[in-house]
Amino acid sequence: MGLAIATSLMAGGAQAASNSAGDIVGRAAAGTVITIENKSIGFTRTLTVGQNGDYQMTQLPPGTYTVRAKRPDGTFDERQVAVNAGEAASTSFEGAAISTVNVSGRLNRIDVKNPESSMVLNEAAIDRIPVTRDVTAVALLAPGATRGDPRIGQTTLRAGNVPSLGGASPAENVYYINGFNVTNMLNGVAFNQVPFEAIAQQQVKTGGYGPEYGRSLGGVLSVTTKRGTNEWKGGANVIYTPESLRGDDLYSIKDASGRWISKKRPGGLDDLQANVWAGGPLVEDKLFVFGLVQGANIERNTYSSVLTQYKTTTPRYLLKADWNITDKNLLEFTAFSDKSKDKVRTWALATEYTDSPTAEKLPDEYTTGGENYIAKYTSWLTDDFTISALAGLGRYSNASKIGSAACPYITDERLASAPVQGCATASAANLPGAMDERKAFRIDAEWNLGDHGLRFGLDNDKYKVVSGSVSSGGAREYIRTIAAGASLANGYVNNTGAAFDYVASRHFENGGAFTTKNSAFYIEDNWQVTKNLVANIGVRSESFENLNADDKTFIKVDNTIAPRLGLSWDVKGDQSTKIFANAGRYYIPVMSNTNVRLAGAELDYTDYYRYSGTNSSDQFQRPNRGAQLGGRLLVSNGEAGDPRSVVDPNIKPMYQDEFILGAQQALANRWSVGAKVTYRKLKKVMDDMCNGPGAEAWARANGYSAAQAGIIGEAIDHCFLYNPGGDLTANIDLEDGKGLTAIKIPASSLGFEQPERKYTALEFTFERAWDGKWNLQGSYVWAKVRGNTEGYVKSDIGQDDAGISQDWDYPGLMEGAYGYLPNDRRHTLKLFGAYQLTPEWRVGANLILQSGRPLNCLGYYAGNLDEVSIAYESASFWCNRKLNPRGTLGRLPWTRELGLQASYEPAWLKGASFTVDVLNVLNKRAVAQVDEEGELAMGTPSPAYLKPGAFQPGRSFRFMAQYEF
Predict the structure, then answer these.
(1) Residues contacting 744, CB < 8 A, separation 6+
(2) d(C-alpha 784, C-alpha 818), whole Å
(3) Closest Cα partner for 9 from 579, 566, 775, 667?
(4) What angle do CA 179, 135, 148 make, to 5 degrees?
(5) Could you give the count of Cα atoms lying within 13 Å of 412 in the half-sphere of its Cβ?
């Protein structure tokens, strides 16, 4: 009898229908009796292999299983198999019983049934890697993953922290916890998270995933939490990252030559966290529970033109319960909270960037995150048929209490530092009670039919948002300079012959309560075509519906068709060489932000005045105004439009096609290598378009009266959601007594090219699996991301208005837009591993090298495609009256980051461990993002152009003391 342990950290197993459970599959002689057992959770299943020689056990809770085979000839075999969520472990018992014993690692074989591109790291593997302890940082270890622009998903206090996967925008991923979708569907750039210590496994799918997954063009990030077993276990730890040992905070100024240089400033982040957990059986083999509570004391001080201090002490928790109702029925329950309340204090500074606080402003409080509850039921109805049902409720708060809500937010943009004046602490305040709520359910089934394994299911997601904001103090005010002969966004031209200062005063408010409904069903046949060839043939159908504040539908798309095909060929028939391929279509829903911005009431206007050079003497310090410069620039009039008259009724949701071809080879001594090529092409884009003048000109030339053409132009001016590059069907009331009339305006009259985003990548991977002594894993990716649209967000300006970005509003904004996109990183090298020096000491390392993102100069539109794009100020690829196509002005520098770890587990205190992680050991501080807005007015260069807005995080030391029993 042989004993072997099989684990998978890099390549996925055969596809499983649930991202919170896994499968065991394999081959054996017909009549072999297979017993699968996990004593720690009281799980035992027995089945008999059919005539075709294949067997499978589906929907298994993640963990280590003993698989025993009793052959018809009476011989026995036994394996230890690690099952990961969302995958299947392959364990075959063909041939004679294994006479040798291997207890130190996985067999030198690769999974040959799975065409997916995924990375799986369990808790032990993550603990061996010196990496920031959050889901995004772990995801960035995967090939093809890059860090998104720090402004995407940012809050008032924290930089954004979402990845770009496979060339998609950071808003195009989907996130799961124990099978429940926790993606924030307001704009896709936030998600609920369990305390990091509660994670048992994290999986990152970067391509080729099956039809059970949807609502993503980038990737799937799935977390499985810890759970109780038949043995009571618990522990506690303290994790401290002191401010005193961090690299200095930086800011930027120009030197004498006009070059941006970084300077040190006071401040930083002090992070102290503690976790306590315990889990075990309430009833042996039947009922298990696991609980974790996390406390924190986090404080950050940031010095700019003011001192901002935020503190967070909100506890977080996870509770997981598992009930084996019978041997064939399992009920799971998960509850967790990631709600965080940040208390903020702000002081004016006598000298910016120095520790010189003066008067304190009014305090603020921000709340993010929320509570989530998940229930899942699994039934193994027969050896060949399994079904599961999941239901969940999730909340995500966006509430804020702004003490200075009566104060206008004033910045002096004549200076590169753009200092804040007056009593304001925030530029806008969210609606009271701003909150997102998801109610969702899904059903998944697997049915083994010999050479065919059918998987099918459905899911339903109802997402309600209360969202909106209003300008603090009634207006956001900017002090700027306009050069002689330069123009403002409202058309005013400075003909005085000399430069002078002016004030731009923008008022913005919107909001309401909105609902989004998404549903889908899928079916897939995992067909064993031959002994060595597996075909995964499936299709997913999705439907999307968005409602306005009056619960009236304004977007409804039914039954999109997304085919998926995967092929996996075991070339030699011995699980040593695999060639795989994928072709698939992927849809993404219309984000709720579209409801808020397009179907809600929104008031947005800007007035311009000559600046007197002085400010009011009260706490507000409003700029004193001179003569008004031109008329009011009105963008939105504050009225919610008819839901039928803001969306093209023929609109198609955003989708992407993907093609992958790859190979994987097992080598001796636990090594494997792989290579693949990926091509992704965005096929449809959904965004708002406002080219009223183009529509009006078409109407005049095509038989409409001047009055009717004016009505058509005005209707389009209010913006329509449609598929850019195509014809627009607009429902418009021509005031002829006939109500709304469907008018088809051809694409040629709207002036837009077809949207494009193409991702091409060549990827090389290698892995030496952990054997209790050492492991090493890495990848090199050469990639290009080209096109004229990033997708759901616009990282060029940090705009995360998913689906309502400034792209496609007017033709001038898209002139010169084709080129290398913000998430284009030509070269990425990743290496991480660990080495057990002695039974007590272990070391680890993590290295990421990545080339920089492309640069642009965004300015006032000076072309001739339209006369409205100039109103968007520094938004076009015309800059200082010159067209600079996207990505043609160089790149940011490479980022180079090395992390090291040392861990000590003393033999004299069993269960104790002490770990030190040093992140960014060499304290490299590459610029991560710059200000690409190049003008203050047409022909007036911005003093802040290319000013660094974010740096690579500095060196930090993280200390952890832990005790487990």
Answers:
(1) 727, 728, 729
(2) 13
(3) 775
(4) 115
(5) 16
Residue 891 main-chain phi, psi, to 5 deg? -140, 160
CA distance 62 to 203: 12
SS3 289: strand
CA distance 22 to 86: 5
The DSSP call for residue 599 is I
Tokens 């078409």: give the residue.
Answer: 698
Give the pair of three-digit tokens for residue 723: 């598929």
List Cβ neighbours of 351 (8 Å cut-off, separation of 6 or more). Answer: none
Give which of 79, 105, 104, 77 is closest to 7, Cα–Cα.
105
Place of tokens 């229930």: 375
CA distances from 370 to 316, 335, 402, 518, 549 (A): 10, 11, 20, 21, 23
What's 596's DSSP letter?
A: I
CB 599 within 8 A of CB 643: yes
Q: Which residues pair with 579 in a beta bridge?
A: 569, 663
Nearest of 378, 658, 571, 608 to residue 486 by alpha carbon: 608
Strands (E), 132-230: 145-147, 163-165, 174-177, 180-181, 199-207, 220-225
Cα distance from N-terminal residue to C-terminal residue, the chain: 33
Cβ contact 664:673 at 8 Å: yes
pLDDT score at 224: 96
Beta bridge partners of 859: 876
Helix 706-717 vs helix 692-701: crossing angle, to nearest 10? 160
Q: Residue holding tokens 């970084």? A: 262
What one-character-per-residue DSSP string does 601-617 give? EEEEEEEEEEEEEEE-S
**Whether the Cβ atoms of residue 358 and residue 314 lie closer than 8 Å to each other:** no
Question: Among 748, 542, 550, which residue's Cα sits nearest to residue 646?
Answer: 550
- Element (H or E) spanning 135, and its range? helix 135-139
Q: Is the pTM of this model over 0.90?
A: yes
The tokens describing 432, both together, are 């009271």
Q: What is the CA radius of gyration of the chain?
A: 29
> Which residues of the chain fall short of a pLDDT of 50?
1-17, 98-107
- Cα-to-chain-centroid distance, residue 728: 31
For 483, the token pair is 């050069």
Distances (CA, A) of 366 to 49, 185, 369, 416, 493: 58, 20, 10, 28, 42
List the beta strands (DSSP E) in 791-888: 819-820, 827-836, 841-850, 878-879, 882-883
Distance separating alpha carbons of residues 121 and 128, to the nearest angstrom: 10
The CA–CA distances, whole Å, from 179 to 17, 24, 57, 63 equal 10, 18, 19, 16
Give the C-alpha separation, 398 to 834, whole Å.
Answer: 40
Asked if 900 and 916 touch (Cβ cutoff 8 Å), the reply is: no
Which ranges of 426-582 does DSSP label H, i.e. alpha helix?
Answer: none
Q: Which of helix, strand or coil describes residue 627?
A: strand
- The one-character DSSP state at 726 is S
How many CB atoms are located within 10 Å of the residue 666 CB?
A: 19
What integer pLDDT is reported at residue 97 of this predicted model?
53
In angstroms, how far is CA 434 from the centroid of its own chain? 21
**Tokens at 950, concatenated:** 């974010």
**Which residues are CB-neighbours of 747 under 8 A, at least 6 positions away?**
725, 726, 727, 728
Cβ–Cβ < 8 Å for 109, 578: no
Helix/strand/coil (H, E, C) string of 231-256? CCEEEEEEEEECHHHCCCEEEEEECC
Q: Which of 509, 510, 500, 502 shows the shortest CA–CA distance to 477?
A: 502
Position 646 scores a pLDDT of 87
Residue 225 to residue 277: CA distance in whole angstroms: 12
Count of residues for the chain?
Answer: 965
**CA–CA gap between residue 265 and residue 249 (Å, rounded):** 6
The HSE-up count of residue 572 (CA atoms within 13 Å, CB side) is 11
Q: What does the alpha-carbon distance between residue 964 and residue 278 come to, in Å, rounded to a whole number?
A: 9
